[in-house]
Write a structure and sequence with these properties.
The complex is a heterotrimer.
Chain A: E1 3-14, E2 17-28, E3 32-36, H1 43-50, E4 58-65, E5 68-71, H2 77-83, E6 85-87, H3 100-107, H4 116-121, H5 124-143, H6 159-171, E7 177-181, H7 189-206, E8 209-213, H8 217-223, E9 226-231, E10 234-239, H9 241-246, H10 248-255
Helix pairs in contact in A: 3-5, 3-6, 5-6
Chain B: H1 2-34, H2 41-61, H3 66-93, H4 102-122, E1 128-129, H5 138-144, H6 150-172, H7 174-184, H8 186-191, H9 196-222, E2 224-225, H10 229-244, H11 249-269, H12 275-289
Antiparallel strand pairs in B: 1-2
Chain C: H1 2-17, H2 19-23, E1 24-26, E2 32-34, H3 36-63, H4 71-81, H5 83-99, H6 109-134, H7 142-160, H8 164-186, H9 191-211, H10 213-216, E3 222-223, H11 237-264, H12 266-276, H13 278-283, H14 288-314, E4 316-317, H15 324-337, H16 342-358, H17 360-363, H18 366-380, H19 396-404
Antiparallel strand pairs in C: 1-2, 3-4
Classes of the chains: A alpha/beta, B mainly alpha, C mainly alpha.
């Protein structure tokens, strides 16, 4: 298995506070990896670092796409997205006043080209590109089961649907690596089960690698190939769900009293 | 001789700067509490100056004793202007507490335009002479004679006393502490039983009172006012607030003094024509290169 | 009863509040006039306004009802939205606009020049709408770009004798250059800081025009700017004004087409996305700086064009035409019409220019009303007069299925 995302000794300081302490993490092709840890462990900070929103203090980050290994340090967020790593947000960040379809269309931005001039002239190529974008976005909405809501305003969707729309929007950027920040937060067990199936399906259909932050242990344990555990910004364990379940450090730090959680 | 010119410019700048600082405090206080650039703050200052002018005129007309006019007019200006600040917040900002960030800003711009034209229509579009109210203090004059005008000295004393009182008030009183708590985290402060709406009102009242004081002082210093003086003064005070780090109270004072000195020296040594251009350029440069100002804290964007 | 008492209290509060500024006036001879009648009128006005205000907010609290447009307006707009009727409406409107110079009352030079300035403001408001309405970036120094356009024409024609048609693109290019020079460093600033920086820029431009007396003539400005000629023909004042009217009308139509195309394009979508959430749109692969710069440049170009038209219309420019009040006025047009809505902004500009022009009583209170408009719109109808202007998308897959069915 070839690695897609490699992170080596990542350190992020905020003033005197060390939010991430020498975090190393690898995600391989078509692998689903979970990042767990108590609140404030630095999981979202980690996402923000690898997507270029924060500038890490030190450490290396690489993304391998179609055989080429790109160093991510110093790249802008939009460049990283264009390379092939997309994300969703913990506190949903949809374009809430735009329609569901338009939200996904925005995700297609980095793989379309029409500039201002062609927008004004509206030549045939531009019109065709636009129609392709519309159709592709609709297809993506079908994948996440939102096609009936395509004309709705995004903020009127129910919570679970908003999370799925975020995934569809991220998929529109054509990612090789998908980062999901608490995708199941606020979902009921039924929705969570559907979400799990969706993630597996996306992985298979799009050759996707997935890194997700999640608190729902049953989902993490049944979905992920490997798990990384963080506490106070430092990685404390990694391994298969079975190994993590029995790791004494993890039980002490995170799962606490219950052995079967 | 050159040194004396320098000292003259220095004190001129200090005087001007202390007025900027008084107005800048209003921006900074409001920004600290509700994160809004109160665009109409300059107009509040202008309203303060006009109120003082009108009250002084009225007092002079009914033959009020000379010495008392300044105090009564200044007090009236402070009271009325605070009321303006309070009312403005209730009308233009309070209904927008949870609106998108740009809404209160646009509302503030509207308020600023409204107040300017309100004074223009109710009073006059022309410059009106402002009565010489500041006392000339002979004893001090003898000491600083050539370098410090009589009104300069008075402005310096009054504004610095006010600023010290304000800082002590914020530091030690119950209300001041509640204000600082609200500035840090409004939700948390409310959970702890602080009435945030009350605090916001008080902030506007204090800010407006300071602006009114600044208005009275500078109007008697300059000798004439019109409806438009608030715009420029407001911009400069805002520059001062940003220069010192908006949201920081000592920052506003430092920023005001630095700006006043910078302007005074440019006018004295380079040219008077581009004095305003200088402060606007300074404003743009600070916002681009150091938006947190001299004493402000860097903020990490939350995602 | 309680409400009436409260309204009375508010009225008294305002009468006390405004008593010095509205009730007193210092005459030049230092005597004082008391203007009681103004205070009483104010009190009565505030009493009723307060009743309305109170009623509105109690309704919002109990039933969360928003202000609705009157039924007739909604119906007209609905008619406008349907494709067939819209075509007919637009044709009638266009014919009317074209015919204006030949109509009896409206056709006088005076009326036409009012219409020309209204059209220029429509251009300005639509241009500002790109950056404020679509991209959500508050720009307060728009008058500076307007001034740069106007002075480009004024200076080039006085010093080098350049004609209108050469100056029109040059004016646009100049403003684009200034827009890029300003936009590049400042567009990454937070919304409210951007507003202040552009405001500062606007003042700097005005102060330079005012103080650079050797070139710009300072506060005396530049006069005798020629109007555009028609293939070298000399035109009378009457026909020249009519000609300029048609030029402005054409320019406005071009503006509307350009901006609606931009709005519906890939870039337009990106602009609307960044208005909603900058971080999310960057995470979607949008190069924020680039898209913002494009919007900024296009928007300033429009101010430049409008500036050239303005200089041609008045044949005189001076810095007093480009104060902050001007920028605030353009902003209130965008706000009144509805940020991002093309119909709305056009309507907003026409209302704010034509209403004070024809209702003379309002003329003095114009800026006062502009200010009040901005505050009241933000409170009662932040989305502006016209909303819900949404593009229809056609999905190939769906259409196929409908045909089959």
């Amino acid at each position: 298995m070839k690695p897609v995302l490699e992170v080596d000794e990542l350190i992020q300081d905020f003033g005197g506070l060390r939010a991430l302490n020498e975090v190393c993490l690898t995600v391989h092709e078509k692998e689903i990896v979970a990042l767990i840890g108590p609140n404030g462990a630095g999981k979202t900070t980690f996402f923000n670092c690898i997507t270029g929103i924060y500038k890490p203090t030190s450490g290396d980050m690489f993304l391998t796409v179609e055989g080429t290994r790109h160093r991510l340090n110093g790249r802008k967020t939009y460049e990283i997205t264009a390379l092939g790593m997309a994300r969703t947000f913990q506190n949903i960040r949809l374009f809430s006043q735009m329609t569901v379809l338009e939200n996904v269309m925005v995700g297609c931005h980095c793989h379309t080209h029409a500039g201002i001039l062609s927008a004004l002239l509206r030549d045939r190529r531009t019109v065709r590109e636009e129609q392709d974008t519309i159709d592709r976005s609709y297809e993506l909405l079908k994948t996440v089961g939102l096609e009936r809501h395509w004309e709705d305003t995004a903020c009127n969707l129910p919570y679970g649907a908003q999370r799925r729309l975020e995934i569809a929007r991220a998929m529109a950027t054509n990612p090789h690596m998908l980062l999901l920040d608490e995708p199941a937060a606020g979902m009921n067990p039924h929705e969570t089960r559907e979400l799990k199936e969706l993630i597996l399906r996306l992985r298979d259909e799009h050759n996707l690698s997935v890194l997700l932050i999640e608190h729902d242990m049953s989902m993490v344990m049944s979905l992920s190939d490997r798990i990384y555990v963080m506490e106070y910004g430092s990685p404390i364990a990694s391994g298969t769900p079975e190994e993590i379940r029995h790791n004494p450090d993890v039980i002490k730090a995170y799962l606490g009293e219950s052995r079967d959680a | 001789m050159d040194f004396q010119y320098f000292i003259e410019l220095f004190f001129g700048g200090l005087t001007r700067g202390s007025i900027y600082a008084l107005i800048a405090l209003g921006y900074t206080l409001v920004y600290g509490i509700i994160g809004l650039i109160n665009f109409a703050h300059g107009e509040i200052y202008m309203v303060g100056a006009f109120t003082a002018l009108l009250v002084a005129g009225l007092l002079g007309y009914i033959g009020f004793p000379e010495g008392g006019i300044l105090i009564v007019a200044a007090l009236a200006a402070i009271v009325w202007t605070s009321a303006y600040g309070y009312t403005m917040e209730k009308i233009a900002y309070k209904p927008l507490r949870n609106a998108p960030r740009l809404s209160p800003l646009i509302s503030a711009i509207g308020m600023s335009t409204f107040l300017q034209n309100y004074v223009l229509l109710a009073q006059t579009p022309d410059f009106v002479p402002f009565p010489m109210l500041l006392p000339e203090i002979d004893g001090i004059l003898a000491l600083f004679g050539d370098v410090l005008g009589p009104s300069d000295f008075f402005i310096l004393v009054v504004s610095f006393t006010t600023m010290v009182v304000l800082m002590l008030w914020i530091r030690y009183t119950r209300m001041g502490k509640a204000m600082r708590a609200t500035a840090q985290n409004r939700t948390m402060a409310m959970l702890l039983g602080i009435d945030a709406n009350h605090i916001i009102s008080v902030t506007f009242i204090v800010g407006s009172a300071l602006a009114a004081l600044g208005g009275v002082l500078i109007a008697s210093h300059m000798g004439q006012i019109n409806f438009g003086i608030g715009f420029l003064a407001g911009m400069k005070a805002f520059t001062a607030a940003v220069l010192g780090g908006i949201g920081s109270v000592p920052g506003a004072v430092v920023g005001g003094l630095v700006l006043g000195l910078a302007e005074s020296f440019t006018t004295g040594y380079v040219s008077g024509n581009y004095e305003d251009v200088l402060s606007f350029c300074l404003l743009i440069l600070i916002l681009i290169f150091r938006p947190d100002g001299i004493l402000g804290k860097r903020q990490v964007q939350k995602v | 009863m309680k409400r009436i008492f409260k309204a009375l209290l508010v009225a008294v509060w305002f009468m006390v509040l405004c008593s010095p500024i509205m009730g007193l006036h210092v005459n030049p001879d230092n005597s004082i006039s008391f203007l009681w009648e103004r205070l009483v009128a104010l009190g009565i006005g505030i009493f009723f306004a307060s009743l309305v205000w109170d009623w509105y907010f109690s309704r919002v609290q109990t039933s969360a009802v928003h202000m609705h447009m009157p039924k007739g307006v909604t119906a007209t707009l609905g008619l406008f939205k349907q494709k067939k009727t819209r075509g007919a409406c637009l044709t009638v409107l266009l014919l009317f606009l074209v015919a204006i110079p030949f109509l009896p009352v409206l056709g006088s030079i005076y009326q036409i020049s009012i219409l020309i300035s209204a059209l220029i403001y429509v251009m300005l408001a639509l241009g500002l709408n790109i950056v404020v309405g679509l991209a959500g970036q508050l720009v307060l120094g728009y008058a500076a770009f307007y001034a740069i356009g106007a002075y480009t024409y004024a200076l080039l024609t006085t010093y080098f004798g350049f004609g209108f048609w050469i100056c029109l693109p040059i004016g646009g290019i100049m403003t684009i250059l200034f827009g890029l020079a300003l936009g590049f460093p400042v567009l990454r600033l937070r919304g409210d800081y951007l507003a202040i920086v552009t405001l500062g820029f606007g003042e700097i431009v005005r102060l330079i025009l005012l103080n650079w007396v050797g070139v710009t003539g300072g506060s005396h400005g530049i006069s005798n700017i020629p109007k555009p000629g028609l293939f070298g023909m000399e035109l009378s004042l009457q026909s020249n004004t009519i000609y300029l009217y048609y030029l402005c009308l054409a320019a406005v139509i071009v503006t509307i087409i350009t901006i609606s195309r931009l709005k519906n394009s890939r870039v337009g979508l990106a602009l609307q996305a960044l208005r909603e959430d900058e971080i999310a749109s960057e995470a979607m692969g949008i190069n924020l700086t680039r898209v913002k710069l494009m919007a900024f440049a296009l928007s300033s170009a429009w101010a430049g064009f409008a500036g050239v038209f303005f200089a041609a219309k008045t044949s005189f420019v001076n810095p007093a035409s480009f104060t902050f009040m001007e920028s605030a006025m353009m902003l209130s047009m965008v706000v009144l019409g509805g940020m991002g809505s093309i119909t709305g902004v056009t309507l907003g500009a026409l209302i704010l220019i034509l209403v004070p022009e024809y209702l003379r009583a309002f003329a003095d209170y114009r800026m006062l009303l502009f200010g009040a408009t901005m505050v009241l719109m933000m409170i009662f109808r932040p989305q502006g007069l016209i909303t819900g202007e949404r593009r229809k998308y056609h999905i190939t897959a769906l259409e196929g299925r409908e045909e089959q069915a």
